[in-house]
Amino acid sequence: MSSVKPFAFVLMPFSKQFDDIYKLGIKETAESSGVVAERVDEQHFDETILERIYRQIENCDFVIADMTNQNPNVFYEVGYAHAKGKKCALITQNVSDIPFDLQHHTHVIYDGTIVDLKAKLGPKIEWLKAESLRRNEERINATHSTDAGYLDKKAYRHTGTMNLEITLRNGSKQRSPEIEAYY
Predict the structure, then answer these.
(1) Which domain holds residue 130?
(2) At 111, which CATH number?
(3) What domain count does the chain have?
(4) pLDDT tens, 55-104?
């Protein structure tokens, strides 16, 4: 199993009103589950903030988004995450903050207290973490290296070799006698 912790990208308004909810409710709950949770305002980067948000959504294992007060930036970013096929933990303090188009998604509805948020968000994070690890085990990864070193950005073709290692695991407790060989 990998020692790299899953990464949850947190989408929420940047306001003092949400500081404790983020630091004590979301971040601490994620950390107690072995998940790294960050907002974009905690990171250092050279690109525009929107480019960074796009990249973090694409690279995260899952998203945690506070929909409270129907912040349009958060809604836009959640839409992008959904378009990228990312799993999302949608949280809100008030059921009336859930727009029609998102009502079919499950939401963690907390009463505005950190205690309630932690109690309800913890199991959701554990599920998302397990789903993330399961998906990552199913993923095929290929690494390409070249002895030539630098590849010109304009080069669209490169000749080389690639080693592909495939690990097949029988997830059941029984052998599969009908499978004799893999080719």
Answers:
(1) 7-138
(2) 3.40.50.450
(3) 1
(4) 999 999 999 999 999 999 999 999 999 999 999 999 999 999 998 888 89
